[in-house]
Design a protein that fits this description.
This protein is α/β, with parallel strands linked by helices and 162 residues long. The protein has a single domain, classed as Rossmann fold (3-Layer(aba) Sandwich). The protein contains six helices and five strands. It has a five-stranded parallel beta sheet with strand order 3-2-1-4-5, with helices on both faces. Strand 4, helix 4 and strand 5 form a beta-alpha-beta unit. The radius of gyration is 16 Å and the shape is globular. The chain starts with a strand and ends with a helix. The model has no long low-confidence stretch (mean pLDDT 95). It binds coenzyme A. Coenzyme A binds next to strand 1, helix 1, helix 4 and helix 5.
Length: 162
């Protein structure tokens, strides 16, 4: 049974992330979506909210487990006896950072491999930050987010704005 761990901040989960999860299921028997606290990014949604949104979006997908993890990713991967870390490689601009992260993870634990998947090109420009920006200025979110995630984002931004 091949297990992949797809880590991220998911602040919030976008169609780009979901696309990677669906693609991962073609390669792995089970995918663990691991939501990181990542306080340095000062997320808009707290960890429990991000976890809930990822669970909501992936509800219909078989062989997906959604969890939170603390500490080093490689330690979590080892604890779960997973075979690889899954990352999406959206553009050349991602390469350097992803390469660095994969090599640091390998240095920390040489048995942890990283597998890169290419998202659909329609999502290759997405980031959670860009979507939050679109939401702040009242742009249409349906192309990027699950409707309930979009609703929560608008509510949160509305709350923050007042
Ligand atoms: N579609 C859409 N957006 C995507 C995407 C995709 N396929 N893949 C990535 N993104 C977005 C993310 O939403 C994020 O957007 P944001 O910066 O606007 O929030 C951005 O691209 C990528 O951010 P990045 O910081 O690279 O990844 P992340 O926030 O998703 O996750 C962790 C980073 C959690 C994997 C990393 O911090 C980690 O492993 N932390 C644990 C501690 C540790 O082990 N550190 C050592 C690692 S070297």
């Amino acid at each position: 049974m091949k297990i992949g761990v797809y880590p991220g901040t998911f602040d919030p989960i976008t169609h780009g992330h979901t696309d990677i999860i669906v693609r991962s299921l073609r390669v792995f028997d089970k995918v663990i979506v691991a939501v990181a606290p990542n306080p340095t990014k000062r997320p808009l949604f707290d960890l429990a909210e991000r976890l809930e949104m990822v669970k909501l979006v992936t509800k219909g997908l078989p062989h997906v487990e959604v969890v939170t993890f603390k500490g080093l990713l490689v330690e979590y991967v080892q604890k779960r006896k997973a075979h690889a870390v899954i990352r999406g490689l959206r553009a050349i601009s991602d390469f350097e950072y992803e390469f660095q992260m994969a090599l640091v993870n390998r240095k920390l634990n040489k048995s942890v491999e990283t597998v890169f998947l290419m998202p659909s090109e329609e999502y290759s420009y997405l980031t959670s930050t860009i979507i939050k920006e679109v939401a702040r200025f009242g742009g249409r979110l349906t192309d990027f987010l699950h409707p309930q995630v979009a609703q929560r984002l608008l509510r949160r931004i509305g709350t923050r704005a007042t």
